[in-house]
Amino acid sequence: MRINRRLALLVTAPLTVAVAFSGLALAPATNQALQAHRLTAMVDAAAVAADLADRVQRERAAATALVSGQGDADAFRSAADATDGRVTAFRGQAADLAGVPGNARRALERITRSLGELSSLRSQVRSGSTTISALAFRYRIVVADLNGYRDGIAQADGVDASVADRIRAAAALSEAAEYTAQQQVTVARAQAAGGFTTASRRTFDAGRLGYTESLGVLYDLGPGEWRTWLERTLSGPKALTVRRYEDAIGRTGSSADIDVTPQQWQRASADRQDLLRSVQKRVDADVLTTVSDTRTALVRNAVLEALVVVLTLVGAVVVTVRLGRVIVRRLRDLRNAAHEVAHTGLPAVMSELSRPGALRGATPEQVAERTGAPVAAIDGDEIGEVGDAFNAVHHEAVRLAAQQAHTHAQFAETLVGVARRGAQLTSVMVSELDTVQRDEADPTRMQHLFALDHLAVRMERNTNNLLVLGGYGNARVRPDDVDCSTVVVAAAQQIERFERVTLGVIESDVAIAARAVHDVAHILAELLDNATRFSPPETRVGVTVWRLRDRAVVQVVDEGVGISAERRAVHNAALREPQAGIGDVRFMGLHVVARLAARHGIVVELRDSSGPGTIAEVTLPAAVLATVSTELPPQQPDMTRAARPAPRRKPAAERPVPASDPRPRAGGGPGDAPREDRDGTAAGSEPVSRVAGVSASGLPVRRRSAPPQWPGTARREAPQQRGGAPAPRPTPRRRDSRQVSDVLAAYTKGVSRSAQRRERPTADDTERSD
Fold this sequence. Notes:
- By secondary structure, the protein is mostly helical.
- Helices cover 63% and strands 5% of the residues.
């Protein structure tokens, strides 16, 4: 769809330009054709205006005769009715006019006003309340406006000069007819008054002069045939008669009687008006024909130009579409290839290269060559060059990705090698510590040895972090499922400030599958370490566990300053989608948690606490959980500890060391000892042999025949040689630090349970101690 829009744009853009320039080219011809059409309508209306002017002139003659007593009312009424008929025709013609130029439009407005005043003028004529001079003047205004309309047409813009001259010549003929009509009224007034006055004499002479001048304009501007029409028409008997009467009247002096009777003059003047009107009709028809022919020619030229433009545009569109289809098809192929590489090909290559051993001994250049060119070879034009450039970019991107994968693989191998050597050294150190602890009787040094033992466990966790970041997991898998409380305690034993961890509500039916125990403990250890590091040292970090349908939720709650919503969103995004490679060393624990969680489908999310601090919520899926064995004693966590932090205890150096304290508890050191049940089993640990005795310091007294049995461990007695002499001591067994962590976890459970009973004895505790 987008390609089709681009094709339409590709076609529309040049087409729009072509149409614009074609419009500019057609505009003059079209404008001329429109002006010729308007001019034809105006000339047609001018012919109707000339006919109306003739009727107004005849009405004026009848009105003059009626007022002077030389005519009758019927003749005036007939003339007025004829005038009204022409007025209706002219108004209908003028209403259809459009685009009338300025002078002609103003003349039409004056004509409309003058025609509206005819009714009042006729009333005055019938009643005799007006003079001949007044009615002649008012009729003259109407005729002048009608003749002025024709002259306004000639002055319009865009009218051809030859056509304008013809219109002016026709207007001059109308002016000549008006002068003769005025002469008719002037002579009638003189006849009624008994002769010419000085003023009427000048008016008569001015009329004759104006007639002559108007005909001169007709002869100058009009074609020669118009003069021929006029001369032939005015050479007949009627024209000669009116000319003889006019000459006789012109020789009559002022205050002298006129020899021509009113009837003779009226009849001869009317005949001359008819002759002039006949010529006027022929002239108007000729002007209309000329204008119509011009209009037809201009319209024909405009149509031809439009056809040429349309054909040109159609050809341009056809050529543009054909070329556009070729270009768009090639662009579509290039776009499809780019989309395929961007959304499928390149991500697949990157995903493949991110896997361990993806290079399989190949060099980055060989990997890039193996992926091939995503865009097929096309013509060597600009589009082909774009395709070649895209192939080059793809090749370089794959090569750089392979180079980065090679670098990451080398770094991961180095990291894993360092981690494994560190693990070996830690194992040796734990073995040596075990040997030293076997023969140590001083409680202070024993405390230091256990601190070193705990440090070794933390070092092993850091080593495991490096293995996880290097792409490897924990090689050890427990044989049995473990209840969640034990896993939490084991996780707490792997951090520095484990004494700050407080167990809250932990449901007893939540257990971790054997294959995921170490990874879940690792996840919780990283979260607990983060919580203790970023919270005040005097506060506690609470851990609660409950089941939610087929899942389990573990919450680690601290009372630190918390983190902002934006930073929390960034960390949660990193927890949901583990990053490839090593990542930022400052957030190594975050990357380790993300990878371990993704390995088992565990969801880890940082949430805002209702108070100070942050909540780390770990959602364990059904695949990670297991059914708790009924043979194991159920955990009885302190329900009140989840609601508030545990009370601050005295440091180990300030507390007395009970005689029953063989090892330091998880909460502080060698000051708190687990309560032993009747069967000699420490609370939360496996059954062990009783201790033979204690020293003055409260530590077990070691005997060669029966070495002390530490909680969670089973020492084999040294074999005796013949004769009672002890056999040589065998080489100490190398102990795994994870085993130490598990032992300490079980031991801490018993210590916690014993301490809770000593702090808050209940009826249930009384029954258990019995």
